[in-house]
Amino acid sequence: LTLSQRFELGSKRNHRQQVAARQNDAAVTQQALRTTQVIRLTRQLYREALVAREQLHQAKKNVTQCQTLISSIEESIRAGKKAALEAQRIKPLRALAELRLQTAQTTLTARRQQLASLWQGQEQEMGPLSGSLNDLQHLPDLAEFRDRIDLSATVRLARQNQHLEQARVELEQANRIQDV
Fold first, then answer.
1. Residue 172: burial class (beta carbons within 10 Å; 0-12, 13-18, 19+)
2. Prediction pTM value
3. Are 30 and 159 in contact (CB under 8 A)?
4. Which of 46, 97, 115, 148 could form a disulfide with 62 if both were Cys (CB 3.0 to 4.6 A apart)?
5. 180 residues of the chain, pLDDT tens digit each
6. Nearest-5° angle of CA 6, CA 166, CA 174?
7. How many angstroms separate the CA atoms of 11 and 132, rounded?
């Protein structure tokens, strides 16, 4: 009759447990970092969207002013008060104003799409952009974002990694050499 028992030498099991615990801690830290990154990026894109909305509003005003100016110049030309050359001088300004309008529209649409994709939604679902540039100091705290942060793919992935690392820690703690 013989008995044999294998022993792990050199604290291998303890070392594996420590490595798994450190990996779990790293996953928890990474999840917190991803959450903070999503919130920071959301705030940044929100600011950029507000700026783009203001630029769009200003560009619309500029286009309207150019059209009003062109109309008044055309009336002056018909009345004989100005030469036809005056109408040609103002057309580049109108083209520039329309170009700025298109640029502002494109920028606003891009920022809205980026915000929507960050939160796993569609731009059409967002609704109107509320707030103003003056209110940027009063953005919601992190606690208010926590309720919806789970919608973000990066945070969900970090949370899954954290759960995986936690399971690995539990496995290493339970994993020992069985009695033979």
1. buried
2. 0.61
3. no
4. 97
5. 565 666 666 677 777 778 888 888 888 888 878 777 877 888 888 888 888 989 999 999 999 998 898 888 888 888 888 887 877 888 888 899 999 999 999 999 999 888 888 776 666 666 777 666 666 555 556 566 666 666 666 677 777 777 887 787 777 767 665 544
6. 25
7. 60
Please report, as a single letter, which amino acid is at residue 111: R
Tokens encoding 46: 């929100």
